[in-house]
What we know:
Elements (H helix, E strand, L loop, with lengths): L4 E7 L8 E8 L8 E11 L1 H7 L18 E9 L11 E4 L13 H4 L14 E5 L3 E3 L6 H4 L2 H13 L10 E4 L4 H12 L3 E6 L2 H11 L12 E5 L6 H8 L5 E6 L6 H7 E9 L11 H4 L3 H8 L2 E4 L5 H14 L5 E6 L3 H9 L6 E5 L1
Bound molecules: NADP nicotinamide-adenine-dinucleotide phosphate.
Amino acid sequence: MTPRTMKRYVVSHRRGIDGLTLETDAPVPGLRSSTDIRINIKYLSLNARDLQIVTNDYPAPHSVPQDVVPVSDGCGIVEAVGSDVTLFKVGDKVAPVFPQGHHFEEDLALRNLKKGLGGAIDGVAAEYFVCDEEEAILIPSNFTLEQGATLAVGFTTAWSSLYSHHPRLQAGQTVLCLGTGGVSLCAAQIALLAGARVILTSSSQVKLDRASVLLQPILAAGAPSDTIQTIDYSKIDAWDSEARRLNGGNGVDFVIEIAGRGTIARSVRATKMGGLVAVSGYLSDYGSIPKHIIEEDLAKTILYSAANVRGVFVCNREDFKTCVSALEIGGVKPIIDKTFKFDELKEAYQYMADGKHFGKICVEV
Ligand SMILES: NC(=O)c1ccc[n+]([C@@H]2O[C@H](COP(=O)([O-])OP(=O)(O)OC[C@H]3O[C@@H](n4cnc5c(N)ncnc54)[C@H](OP(=O)(O)O)[C@@H]3O)[C@@H](O)[C@H]2O)c1
């Protein structure tokens, strides 16, 4: 039987991780319409955005309501269904769509940015979560609930970067992934699954070595040793030239650009004519950016590279389902660094803030 009250977190202020407040007797949300489902959330995973929301660094064009429930990525078991629900049954393992209402590419409008979980509207850091049946998808049948909690932002952004727009990734191409965070490692996995080469960068050789080992199972039998190559950007400043060198002297086909001002010019220079720099993040904004980078004439860099530079915003529900099928059939499993307990949520955020993480941080509810 469903309890009347539940545990959930709210963001009681946006001045840092201390703003995360655990409530132990919040009302369990009821179904609001006949097409709603109620999910008993079992796992969460964190994204950079979750941290940016509590530190008030998230620049989305919408406000974050007081006492919003944080976290966008979760997974759980359908525990109640409205009388008109046809897509799910009680017991199904599902993950909510982020943002709610982004079903097809043309839905990507401000009104849907205003439905981003754990920011504009309540997220999933709660034992129960209610949404319309159209706002969740089945996780891969071969995923655990913990693995299912990593899908909604990292994998969708990686998928969208490589497949939702032109050009689209093809076997034999090369994808340069910046850093070893959630989006980049998801992109590396999707690229290897497609038969592409991957060049990973990181500030840590230890992380690069670990990533190279964890990505091996996706490689086709007999794939050459240079299918996964790495660059320690803390040691090699000109990592754009190094990426070209590793790619046989040619620009790469795709860059997973997550660091923004501090890296975008090098990303463009690393890319071949007509290749795609898929820009999803701006993590370098949180550190000091050298003057020569700020002063660089980015327009000329883009012009003379003739690369495509495109903003990416997660992906729509239909592409999300395709991504999930690809992971399911390809047997790709998320790279999970560490799993915290629900009452350790602040520690999980701090782990991310300290930059210690690698791939995904999960939280068991
Ligand atoms: N547009 C969208 O739809 C969308 C969706 C998801 C995420 N994002 C954005 O994408 C970015 C990444 O998100 P995430 O969740 O993957 O973050 P994350 O898991 O926290 O990734 C952090 C990693 O990024 C790497 N990094 C940081 N600064 C870097 C730099 N200057 N150069 C190269 N690598 C750098 C570091 O890797 P190493 O430690 O290995 O150096 C760091 O560990 C964030 O800005 C986030 O807001 C946007």
